[in-house]
Amino acid sequence: MNVARLTAALVVIAAAVAIAAPAQAAEYVVESCRDAAGNELSTAAWIPAGDPDRRFDTCAEGGALGIVAAPSDTTPRVAISGYRFDVPRGATLVEYEAWLAAKVRNGTPFAWYMAGLGQGDELAVPTTLAGCFEMEWHCSEGDFAVPLSAANEIAQPVDEGGLALLIACASPVGLPCVPGADPPARTSLFRSVVTLDDPSDPAIGSLGGTLLGGGPASGVRTLTATVTDEGSGVATVELLVDGAVAAARQADGTCVEPYVVADPCAGIFPATFSVDTTQLAQGAHTVALRASDGAGNVSQSAPVGIVVDNPAPAPPPVVVVPGPAPPPPPIVIVEEPSRQEDPPDPPPVTVQLRAPDEVEVPTREPVTGQVVASDGTPRAGVALRFERRPYGTRSWRRWRGGTASGPDGRFVVPAPRESTEVRVVAEDVRAEPARIRFVRPLEVTIAASDARLRNGQELTLGGRVRHTGGTEDLTVLVQSFVRGRWRTVDSTESGQRGRVRWSYRFENTSRTARYRFRFVVRSGPGLPWKRTVSDVVSVVVAGG
């Protein structure tokens, strides 16, 4: 537990509490200036705005994005300079983490400098800000000397719009700001981690190319399509032949994690694939395209049938070289009992298993799939087995016995009541297993060991992460409501049956204060759940 970080964050807290709604399912993260280990990152996601003489970018040298006001910057109700984080079309801002320091010295109570991180699409005097934003003669937030200090860390959900790092002069009555020092205001952003939600799947345009020109296909043909995506952009386009990946095209440039721009991948991705039909068996096949975006959304085109008909290769020419005839070999007669050779093994049968990609549970509707041959015709009587595994694990285990496809090739998949991944495996024919993600929304509970404590006593928060389907070791953030926003003060992991336990001893509460806490489970790679927030618990601690 980071006690120093928690002690610095837990202060006397205002009474009102607002809980952010859970984010949408497909989230991606944009990092700037430096990563968690302190390695430099691009600041391309932050767009300069305002007076260029007042801002600087030294992140490439281990510094910060920053703004410094001059004593002459006194115009009221104006943002002096800064940087904007613009949210791309099709995406929404979910939350941000920032490592920020700010300092302000005011000379009058009627107008004051604001310095730090604000919310909004434009560089303007914000309504909310992280840093120095209220009327104070002297304000100092964070540590300019230690960039990744716990005192600099801020985590906060965001309702809408973008972000802005800025210095402004706020004045309700229109009077100019009066500097209390030189410089009167400065702020530095050492690292930012912005979470964006991209709810839409990539859109795959009509398939074209010489492969679909009509009639049988032979030789090398092309398959083309234009894929578009708003938000994170198109990351990968795959060519599927008979349901299996045959080739892939990936976006380049900034479409590499960690993402450093808000729209990291291609908004428009023209994809062209060359298909060598001589590598395919003669007869019917299906082709399709599958696309994924930078947030992990996936879409697939409907399969299109083709017929491969390549001419048989010409036999090699026969070359006759004249020469003396060799003597005839001796004739040897060997009598053997006649025998009949075994016929060759038949070629393996290839089929496709079709099933939905994701199902929300519990569900009253049957979950069905279908077995089809390579030409799309149903296959009856194919033996199938079911296997499952919790999310975040690798081992598959047999589950619920098996079944066989019916006359129309269809089969029913048993639906679990909790979140789990299920795959359908063909027993006696060759086929790529079908995977189905069963997802039940998480529920996170929280309870405090005591509602009232004294300084020096220990608080224990307990709870459960429900509907994980056996997934353990989920990261659970412990957040407290501090100075008008939620801050992450520590983290823990869920244990068996999703149990969560976290303790802290109050040692620096000098007067009676009310503290508010909540648990947050964030979405992560390989996990299907949305960001989930618990209820809020309050604890009153008497000073001592």
Q: Could you describe the 3D structure shown?
A:
With 544 residues, the protein is mostly beta strands. Among the domains are: 27-196; 198-296, Sandwich (Immunoglobulin-like); 443-542, Immunoglobulin-like, CATH 2.60.40.3880. Strands 1, 3, 4, 6, 9, 10 and 12 form a seven-stranded antiparallel beta sheet that branches. Strands 31, 33, 34, 36, 37 and 38 form a six-stranded mixed beta sheet that branches. It is elongated. The protein contains one helix and 38 strands.
Beta-strand residue fraction: 35-45%
* Share of helical residues: under 10%
| Distance N to C terminus | 23 Å
Determine the oligomeric state from the structure.
Answer: single chain
Overall body shape? elongated
- Strand tally: 38
Q: How many DSSP H or I helices?
A: 1
Q: What class, by secondary structure content? A: mainly beta
Quick structural overview:
The chain is mainly beta. The protein has one helix at residues 3-9; strands spanning 27-32, 46-50, 55-57, 65-68, 78-85, 92-105, 112-119, 129-132, 138-141, 153-157, 163-170, 185-197, 203-204, 220-228, 234-241, 244-250, 268-276, 283-293, 298-300, 304-308, 351-354, 358-360, 367-373, 383-389, 397-404, 410-413, 420-426, 434-439, 443-444, 447-448, 452-454, 458-466, 475-482, 485-493, 499-505, 513-521, 532-533, 537-542.
Keywords for this entry:
7-stranded antiparallel β-sheet; mainly beta; Immunoglobulin-like
Compile the SSE list and pairings.
Elements: H1 3-9, E1 27-32, E2 46-50, E3 55-57, E4 65-68, E5 78-85, E6 92-105, E7 112-119, E8 129-132, E9 138-141, E10 153-157, E11 163-170, E12 185-197, E13 203-204, E14 220-228, E15 234-241, E16 244-250, E17 268-276, E18 283-293, E19 298-300, E20 304-308, E21 351-354, E22 358-360, E23 367-373, E24 383-389, E25 397-404, E26 410-413, E27 420-426, E28 434-439, E29 443-444, E30 447-448, E31 452-454, E32 458-466, E33 475-482, E34 485-493, E35 499-505, E36 513-521, E37 532-533, E38 537-542
Parallel strand pairs: 22-28, 31-38
Antiparallel strand pairs: 1-12, 2-5, 3-4, 4-12, 5-11, 6-9, 6-10, 6-12, 7-8, 7-11, 13-14, 14-17, 15-16, 15-18, 18-19, 18-20, 21-23, 23-26, 24-25, 24-27, 27-28, 29-32, 30-32, 32-35, 33-34, 33-36, 36-37, 36-38
